[in-house]
Amino acid sequence: MSMPQGSRTSSLLQKIQFLFRPLETLDNWHQEYGDTFRVLENELPAIIYFSSPEAIQRIFTADPEYLSSTQKSNVTKLLLGENSIIFLTDQHHQRQRRLLLPPFHSERMREYSQIICAITEEVISQWHPGKFFVVHSVMREISLRVILSVVFGLQAGNYYNQLRQMLSSLFETFDHPLSSILLLFLPVFQKDLETWSLQTNLMRQIQQINQVVYALIAERRLQDNPSTKDILSMLIEARDESGESMANIELRDSLLTLIFAGYETTASAISWALYWSHYLPEVQEKLLSELNPLIPARDKSEVARLPYLSAVCSETLRLYPIALNAFARVVQKPMEILGYQLEPETIVNVSIYLAHQREEVYHEPKSFKPERFLERQFSPYEYLPFGGGNRRCIGAALAQLEIKLVLATILSRLQLALITPRPIKPIRQGLIMMPPKFEMVVTGVR
C-alpha cells in the first residue's frame, strides 16, 4: 500500500473544520477512514494520521535516521528560541534532554510537592462560603505561581513581580480565539511578521521577558552555592559529558520552553479535574474518602501516590488531552508503517485524542471512568497524554504532580459546587484544547 485514504474535500475546508471543530472532525475522519488516514490530500508533503497502538509503537521507537521531529512554526520559534528542545535534533537534542533531566528526578518531586500545596493553600486561604470564581482563571494563577517558584526560585520581590506581570500579559495575547488562530495556523501572517501589529506587540513582550530572565541568570551565576534548588539553579550547575554547561541563550530558551509547556496545559487539566469531580458526585465522594486519612500528611508526595486520585487525573488527561497530537515526525528514509510505504518528507502525526478514544482499549471512551485506570495498566502506546518516544514531554512528572496536589488540596479544604452543572466540551486555544470558562461557588469550608 502506498498511501492511506482521506477526505477529498478541499484543503481550505479541511483546515477550517479542524480549526473550529477539531474533535468532531477527527472523530468523523476516523469513523470514515479508520485508524490511518491522510489529510490535505492535494498538498505536499503528505500528512498521515495514525492512532493504533501498533503504529504508535512503530513511530515512537523508530530510529531517528528514519523518523525525525519536525517543528517549523516561526511564531513558536520566536517565543521559545532556536535552542528550545522542541526544535533541536540528533545529538543536540539528546544533549539538551540529558541536561534538562536532573530537575525532574523523583527526589526533586518531594520538595516541589510542598511548594505546590503551599501555593494552592495561599491562593484559596481567603475564600469563604458564597465566594464565586472562574475556575480556569484561578488555576492559571496557581500554575503561574508554581512556575515562578519551582522554575525560577522566586516567591516575592522585583523579579517575581515583573515576571508575574509580564507572563500574565503575554498569555493574555493568546486568549482571543482569533488572535490564537492567526498566530499559529495561518502561514500568510507568518511571512510578513515585522509589519503585523499583533506580532510586533508579541516581540516587544518577549524582549521585556528576556531582559528579566537574562538578569536572573547573571545574578544566579554569581552565587557559588545557591540557597534554592529551583530548576534554573540546577540547569546552571548541569554539565554534559565533556564538562560543558549551558550557554545563557540555551538557559533562556529552556526556561521559556518549560513555561509554555507547563502553564496553560496544567491549568487546563486541573480545571477539567475540578469539573469532573463536581459534575459526577460519585467521583468526588470516592476522592474525599481516599483523601481524608492523609489530609494532615507532612509528605505531600505521599498524597500524589493515592490510587484513585491518580486514576482521576489520568482519566482527565485521557478523555480530553490538552494536545491533540504528539510532536509530528518527518520521514527521512523510505519506511513502512502498517503496510503503508512512506516516502521521505512525508509528515507522520500520532493522534493522542484518537488513541485515547479506541473502544477496544477504553470501554465507553466518551465517558469519564477513572476506575479503568485501577483495573489495568495501559501501555505507552495506548495512553500517551504527554506524547512519547524521545519527544515525550520532559516535564510530564511535574505536571502530573501539580494536577494531583492542586486538586487534592482544594477538595480537602473547601466544599464547592458548579454554578451551572451541565456538560461542557473543550475549545481550541492555539495548539491546545482547554475547557470553556465555567464558574464555581464555595459552599463550605472543611
Q: How would you concisely characterize the structure shown here?
A:
By secondary structure, this protein is α+β, with helices and mostly antiparallel strands. The chain is built from 19 helices and twelve strands. Strands 1-2-8-5-3 form a five-stranded mixed beta sheet.
Please, could you describe this protein's structure?
The protein has helices at 11-20, 22-33, 53-60, 74-80, 90-100, 106-124, 135-151, 158-172, 177-185, 197-221, 231-237, 248-262, 264-279, 281-291, 300-303, 307-319, 352-355, 372-375, 396-413, and strands spanning 37-39, 47-50, 67-69, 132-134, 329-331, 335-337, 340-342, 347-350, 414-418, 427-429, 432-434, 439-445. A five-stranded mixed sheet has the order 1-2-8-5-3. It is 50% helix and 10% strand. It has one domain: Cytochrome p450 (Orthogonal Bundle), CATH 1.10.630.10. The model is unreliable at 188-195 (pLDDT under 50). Strand 6 (335-337) and strand 7 form a beta hairpin. The chain has 446 residues and is α+β, with helices and mostly antiparallel strands. Helix 6 (106-124) runs parallel beside helix 19 and helix 13 (264-279) packs across helix 14 (281-291). The protein has 19 helices and twelve strands. Its cofactor is heme. Belongs to the cytochrome P450 family. This is Cytochrome P450.
Sequence-ordered SSE layout with sheet pairings:
Elements: H1 11-20, H2 22-33, E1 37-39, E2 47-50, H3 53-60, E3 67-69, H4 74-80, H5 90-100, H6 106-124, E4 132-134, H7 135-151, H8 158-172, H9 177-185, H10 197-221, H11 231-237, H12 248-262, H13 264-279, H14 281-291, H15 300-303, H16 307-319, E5 329-331, E6 335-337, E7 340-342, E8 347-350, H17 352-355, H18 372-375, H19 396-413, E9 414-418, E10 427-429, E11 432-434, E12 439-445
Helix pairs in contact: 1-2, 6-7, 6-19, 7-13, 8-10, 10-12, 13-14, 13-16, 13-19, 16-19
